[in-house]
Write the structure tokens for this entry.
Amino acid sequence: MSLILCEVGPRDGLQTESAMLGPEARAELANRMMATGVPRVEVASFVNPARVPQMAGAEAVVANTVAVAGCARAALVLNRRGYERLRETDCERVHVAFCVTEEFNRRNQGCSVEQSVQQTIQIAESARADGRPVTVILAASFGCPFSGEVDPGRVTALAERVAVAGVDQISFADTIGVGVPWQVKKLLGNSRGLGLTLGLHLHNTRNTGYANAYAAIDAGVGVLDSSVGGIGGCPFAPRATGNIATEDLIYLLEKEGVSTGVDLDGVLGVAEWLAKVLDRPLPGLVYRAGPFPPP
């Protein structure tokens, strides 16, 4: 079995960092990760820099990344305005996100869930006309910091609505790291009939991220998001901490016989470099402990 790993460190990983890196440094992180053989990198976020200053200069980030054969550059947008900015760049993929609960969506997107659904459909249609594949990310699919538990049926219904717009992938995001394996199996199982690539965006806030990734393998997941060093979080979700670490995920998958095509040693080198850039230890474990057996 093989699956696609999507590196989200340059975007989700850095969007809550107190040490704000400029576009060139964020592009360097993306370039370093693309050189490891990862098949997709989320390089930027076309959002309002007044709300997320860590993501300012998305156009410059894309411009400073070097396209690599076999690796697609993706960028996140939340609304039509964001897509209009993205379409002026040569970024290959579009990631469109919205929250599945009303309160979180209003805080994160500034509009209702229904408005986000309509915008997402419009963006997907435009991107398809522009020749760009589209991933729709359903944030807070496993639980909401303001509304609590989320009904999997609600998430599935939203996935069905956006699927008709001709999207290429739907990802379920555990934005605040509350999910457990039965939810992974439920969401992926309920949506298998859509005939699309299904993905997961996992956080390890409550130490269930890797268990969820493992469960997703048996449930037929096609794409797993991760962040080098395990950095990241959502600026609009209280106590939402880091993503699952790319190097830790690769170690688990490779030991289980799941091919990733990514150079683990290369990712470890990027994690070590990033720890120096941010001037702090990162949450990931394998970059500190090293691979096994040791080289």
Observations:
- The CA atoms of residues 97 and 137 lie 4 Å apart.
- The longest strand covers residues 40-46.
- The chain has a mean pLDDT of 96.
- Strands lie at 4-7, 40-46, 72-77, 93-99, 134-139, 169-173, 197-201, 223-226.
